Amino acid sequence: MDFLVITGPTTSGKTALSMLAAEAIGAEMVCMDSRQIYRGMDIGTDKAGAELRQRVPHHGLDTRSPDETYSAGQFARDARGWIVEIRSRGRVPLVVGGTGFYLKALTDPMFREPEMEQARLGALRDHLADMPREQLEGWVRELDPDRAALAIEGGPNRLMRTIEVALLTGRPLSWWHTGGPAEEAALKGVIVVLEVPREELDRRIDARVTRMADQGLVAEVERLIAAGYGPEDPGMTGTGYREVATYLAGQTSLEDALDRTRSLTRKYARRQLTWLRHQMPDDVIRIDGLQSVSDQADEVVEAWRLASG
One fold for both 3-110+188-308 and 118-179? Predict the structure, then answer.
């Protein structure tokens, strides 16, 4: 087996479990979270702190500025490099996070990026950057109806990416995902899914947002805005950041911003649960997230030892 994975919906307890498992099997972490890659975004993404990083090496945190894009394909390329490095040291690559598309990019590799003329791409991006979101959505519905809903949910950058590929390659992005040649061979991993009842996830999400506010989420967003980052930057589209930015702009109260953050996070957790039910391989290992963390870790360690021989 190439690596071990611990995944699950937000607030399912992945961090606590992964730390115990990593120390038991001699692992190093590979972050599989589409928000924790951004520098300066620690509280709102619930990023592992310095003490945890000292105990177990982490890879994939703080690799991008909030105004930079980062795709599942880019993650797969980076993660493959980290996995090779970790294994070369005789340690276990432990991939941890809840971004399902990132995991899919490792176990079911994405298409090779189509070549696009850089001059035309730059000119098109400049043109699309000035286009209202409603118009971007209309173009996506026309050019790639099969991917429209996903692109619209993903925000302006995903909308523009969908348009760019369709116009500059002559094929929609949905075709490249299903018909394009794979970039790399699939990696094999032991995949552990933490399962927690929806009602308990809701309770934990509400508590986490309150804790983030107490730890200084508002000040973190203030610092990002002062540094020149805005609500449309890729990193700032994460749940909590846009909502607090709206509060700081005087458009809503802090409590309303936090309530909306709770609501959107619960909806995100629902989408994760659906994905984890329908997109996981048959041999995935599902663990009860309500049992003690030590018992969870024992199950993970045993699963890894059985699979790795």
Answer: no
Q: Give pLDDT, residue 154.
A: 74
CATH for 118-179? 1.10.20
> Could you please report the per-residue DSSP string of 206-227?
HHHHHHHHHHTHHHHHHHHHHT
Residue 185: predicted pLDDT: 75
Task: Name the CATH superfamily, with its identifier, for domain 3-110+188-308.
Answer: P-loop containing nucleotide triphosphate hydrolases (3.40.50.300)
User: Are 207 and 214 contacting, i.e. CB atoms less than 8 angstroms apart?
Assistant: no
Residue 231 is predicted with a pLDDT of 86
CA distance 18 to 4: 10
Q: What is the pLDDT of residues 109-119, one digit of tens each?
A: 766 667 788 88
Question: What is the C-alpha separation between 205 and 293, in angstroms, rounded?
Answer: 18
246-285 burial, b for 16+ CB within 10 Å, e for fewer? Answer: bbeeeebeeeebbebbbebbbebbeebbebbeeebeeeeb
Scan for tokens 């620690």, then name that residue. Answer: 42
CA pair distance 257, 245, nearest whole angstrom: 9
Q: Estimate to the nearest angstrom the gap between the alpha carbon of 125 and the chain centroid.
A: 24
Backbone angles phi, psi at 10, to 5 degrees: -55, 140
Query: In whole angstroms, what is the distance from residue 290 CA to residue 67 CA?
Result: 37
Looking at residue 206, what is its pLDDT?
A: 97
Query: Angle 109-82-157 (CA atoms, 0-180°, nearest 5)?
Result: 55
Residue 144 backbone phi and psi in degrees, to 5: -150, 70
Low-confidence ranges of the chain (pLDDT < 70): 110-113, 179-183
